[in-house]
Amino acid sequence: MMWKNKRFSKPVRSILSIVSAFIFISAAGSNGAKVSTENTESKNIVASDSAKKDASTEDKSKEANAEGSEAKGDVSKDGAAEATKPESDTGNSNVSVNGTLKVHYIDVGQADSILIQQNGQNMLIDAGNNPDGNLVVNYLKSQGVSKLDYVIGTHPHEDHIGGLDVVIKAFNIGKVYMPKATATTATFKDVVSAISSKGLKITTPTVGSTINLGDASATILAPNGSGYEDANNYSIAIKLKYGNNSFLFMGDAEDVSENEILAKGLDVKADVLKVGHHGSSSSTTSAFLNKVSPKYAIISVGKGNTYGHPHKPIMDRLKASGITVYRTDEAGTIVAASNGTSITFDAKPGSYSSNGTGSSAQSSSKTSSGSSSTSSSKSSSSKTTAVAPVPRTTKPSSTTSSSSGKALIKGNINSKGEKIYHMPGGAYYDRTDAEELFKTEAEAQAAGYRRSKR
């Protein structure tokens, strides 16, 4: 500095030294503050950048999680929609099928028995008359059946459940379905006993419920009511779907049940119709047949049966609709096979000929493997709830019999357990399966029957 080169007095030099030192310290402090501030700012910048990076990473993570959550949400929504989306009423085309579906319409004469097989699973619908049990068992074994996953007794009439007790005892059984209809007959009691002996229970199906058989699905369509006068209307009706093909099984369901099905708007359209009640004019109304609109019709009926089945009005109706008919009385056992898109039959199409008009008198005998219900040790059955018969107060009519002396008055136990007799020409006469025949109303009343109101 300049003052170092000049000569000053000692006191002055001391003062100048102190001032100089103060200036130096102040300057140094100022620079230090700047450095410190700069370092702090630098650290703050680094921290800020780091925080931004962390925030950015966190934001990205949140975005990724949000996207993942949204994606999962979409899958969940789609999955739920897929799970709750109802299957098309008109087909099963959205379901892939594997292998062949076989439907065996077993020839059990004037009775019903149907075996359905798909992908190693088996369902049996009915088992013919009482003497047909072993016939059905042998047929099932010939088809490789060792277990029946599902057994369905459509309704408690002997020509449908007569052989079920023998079948149930012969095979391993998965589940048994029967309508909420009972009977006091030996036939019904034998079936219930066989079910109980295997530790099984009867399941009453509900309309709309589905039974899966391999890749096929069977939907329950009937019965839709209760308190039917005719036990036939308790028949369990089923629509079976397999890929684009479908089959309809009506048991002995009559016009009452058919009308209930139509009134509910249930899907009955099918490729193959098992004609109700063996082709009786009491079933297969024009309205119902038009809704089903089948290509093929199967009639399970006994050759030369005395009921006149199939009736002429039904055969004329099927012919007019251009429906190909197959009949067990002409072809024997009929097997239909479906690959999910087409159906083939192992039999030749049958005729449109009828065995009766549907208005003639019919006797009580049934042709099934050369047997009749009246000669069987078990009587044919109807639904009953042990209701006492209502006595008739009007005068009995004169003798009613054919010219040959054959009794024509039909005695039948209705769904309420009432013993009712039907006169020729009555509204229910032609559709009634007689459990007893009488020549006079007095005979019928003496046996505990009352006259039908129709």
UniProtKB/TrEMBL annotation:
Protein name from the UniProt record: MBL fold metallo-hydrolase
Gene Ontology MF terms in the entry: hydrolase activity
Keyword Signal among record annotations: yes
SMART domains: Lactamase_B
Keyword annotations: Hydrolase, Signal
Keyword Signal: yes
SUPFAM superfamilies named in the record: Metallo-hydrolase/oxidoreductase
Domain spans labelled Metallo-beta-lactamase: 110-303
Ranges of compositional bias, category Polar residues: 33-47
Pfam families: Lactamase_B
Gene3D superfamilies assigned: Ribonuclease Z/Hydroxyacylglutathione hydrolase-like
Bias type Basic and acidic residues, positions: 50-88
Organism: Clostridium bovifaecis
Signal sequence coordinates: 1-28
Bias (Low complexity): 352-385, 393-404
Region (Disordered): 33-96, 352-426
